[in-house]
Amino acid sequence: DLGLELPALRDRGVRLFDTGRTQCFFLDLHNGHLSMKERVDREEICAAVAKCSLNFEILVKNPM
Fold first, then answer.
1. How confident is the model at residue 11, as a pLDDT?
2. Which residues are 27's β-sheet partners?
3. Are the beta carbons of 55 and 17 closer than 8 angstroms?
4. pLDDT tens, position by position, for the chain (64 residues)?
5. Would you list the domain boundaries of the chain?
6. Residue 63: its pLDDT value, please?
7. Residue 4 neighbours by CB distance under 10 Å
8. What is the CATH number of domain 6-59?
């Protein structure tokens, strides 16, 4: 939780970046919801890895 109200998400130009090879996440700036863009196939993304994680970064233009 960034502690930002909805208008601040838009005003600060909040952007979401997936760090993997596919874009899995979507940040809706109208309601603040972080969602999956589509169903994720664990076998496709993490194949033979026992511990699987999907990473992303959130960029905020103006300092908090």
1. 84
2. 34
3. no
4. 667 788 888 888 888 888 777 788 888 888 888 898 888 888 888 888 888 888 888 888 876 5
5. 6-59
6. 64
7. 15
8. 2.60.40.60
Extract the tokens encoding 47: 């194949």
Residue that has been written with the tokens 């979507």 in this structure:
26
In the prediction, which pLDDT does 54 show?
Answer: 83
> How far does CA 1 lie from the centroid of its chain?
12
Radius of gyration of the chain (CA): 14
Residue with tokens 């603040």: 32
Residues 55, 50: Cα–Cα separation, whole Å? 16
Residue 3: DSSP 8-state: -
